[in-house]
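Record 1 of the preview.
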Amino acid sequence: MSLHILPSGRAFTLRDHTPRPKSAASRRRRREREGGPGWTKEQFSGLCLKYGNRCLCCDEEKYLVPDHVVPLYRGGAHALSNIQPLCVDCNFRKGLTIKDYRPDHANQA
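->
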């Protein structure tokens, strides 16, 4: 551990200036950037239409949000091929688990 002197005369060590931990939001944004190409609103709307604009978990017509089948936190891709439309309640309940509700992808996750 070396001692550094600033022009102002203040002394510090490298231990005094360790980088702050990244926030959860910044870690998520990094995983999204590195995880794949993402998707457009039109592509997600088309995916919702493909499944009848219903939540794939509870089968209700509610406001749908994109859910990562394999969460980014667990190494999933940020791509349309890893997305399923779920309502907010079902998406929250699913959390970080790997659960594929898409009928055409049964038992692949």
